[in-house]
Structures
1.
Amino acid sequence: MNDATQSYSIQPENQKVTNLLSIDVEDYFQVSAFERVSPEAGWGARELRVEGNTERVLSLLDAAGIKATFFVLGWVAERCPQLVRCIAEGGHEVASHGYGHKRVGLQSQAEFREDVRRSKALLEDLSGSEVSGYRAPSYSISRQIPWAFDELLEAGYRYDSSIFPIRHDFYGIPDWPRFIGPAVKIADGSWQSANVANGEPTLVEVPISTVRIGGKNLPIAGGGYFRLLPYVVTRWGLQRINRTEGQPFVFYLHPWEFDPGQPRFQGAGWKSNFRHYLNLDKTEGRFRRLLGDFHFGTIRAGLNL
Ligand SMILES: [Zn+2]
């Protein structure tokens, strides 16, 4: 571990670790698992539920006195500009989820450049502050796309939160370090964690948290895993990251995960349906418990940006 890495470890406040809470602001019809049954061309005709669902998340956070990072999709920001203003005025961080929610591997380098620049400019106009962070649709920055970090850096982003260090059928870089640290570009043009390679750190990577059991990284910090596992299991895993490893965890949810009444898609396959619709009615209750059990802040504040 080098000096630059150490500065991102613990943010003590009231003797607790400050964890990083993130919300990916997209609608139920934009998730990658539904890209075939809900192509982008039809999005404009669908019932928009993201605004109401995000307002519900904001009110839960307000009640708990917690600030979070909102990775907002540019497509949503254009249609709900007041929502972006509201997030910023609430003291939360506005960050970018890109513009069109196309997985990075399905975009050319030029398309990706346009997508991350367009969303950043739009969100900065609406929020009135710098957008420092980016999260790729479906954590889709993989080792096969070496230019993604180059483009983020050139577009002016200061951190990325797209790497999920697990094995999964759609995403993940299983051997990326599990905790926050600088990323560096090495001689062959690829990017590595500064924990394992030398170079000038220019972009900070904020991986989604995992719990390490039996030599494997297991997902524990949000989304479908939060809805699947009993809350006490999630709490145990997250406490282990804070107490045993002394690290903050990075947690994520989507506004549609708070919405059991959303329209249902057919034809995406049982696995995608299971992941998307499981326990939507449990999210809010579990989220309230989570907010009471742990200390949270924005990613920008956690990185001292
Ligand atoms: Zn997304």
2.
Amino acid sequence: MTPEELKEIICEKAYDLGANIVRSAPVKRWEEFPIQKPEFWPQNIWPWVKNVIVIGIPLYSPMISTTPSMVYQELYDTSNRVLDDIAYRLTNYITTKLGYKAVFFPRDCYYSIDVLLKNPNAAFSHVMAGYYAGVGTIGDSHNLITKEYGPRLRIVSVLTDAPISADEMIEKNLCIHCKKCLRNCPSQCFKENGDSLFIMDKMACTEYHVKIKNENHWPCGVCIDVCPVGEDLKAYRGTKTITKEGIKHCQSFGS
Ligand code: SF4
Ligand code: SF4
């Protein structure tokens, strides 16, 4: 079987399991275009890995626009659950049916938000994996910006030794540098940085998350709500994604 044929079989399985986007990157890209320190590279976390398969599903814009809210919290939690479920089943398929090694790096893989107060970085970055696999480019907000869904795409990564073909990385930056994320961030954690990504005070973002978690509606997500990039917004252009009346009604029922 060729790398292209094997890739197609794995992609079809992932789409059957509910993925909207499936792309892959060889691990050598972490070395060729180094952004993070080597200890964050997949090959240094799991030495058998040759390719990283990135799986994405969308977050729905009208639901994000209620943030912070129970509606968004449930959407966020559901997307994590669905992604981990797809990644589990795809890993099962690759290992038991195709006979290759595979593991998945789960979604929010930290014990509690308090851990992030000590170190607000992830052990493995799905955003970087999405960038190397050609799912999107990294925007000024440090989110992965995609053509299809802007930053409103949740992703998970499957690490495998299966010899599959790779997708091209996206060369043109999809961020249009509109600064909406910077202006609207409730923790004001972004600072301009010339032509580079905004400097991000991750601790300020984390502390804001602790605050809204204590108020029982988190995560924040304002920076992904306001980003104007993404074909998913076409259906709502020129309209509001939620009305004041709708918000008032849901709030009166605890949502
Ligand atoms: S999640 Fe909220 S607090 Fe954090 S960077 Fe985005 S807008 Fe700012
Ligand atoms: S809101 Fe504007 S500046 Fe921020 S990531 Fe999106 S396109 Fe880039």
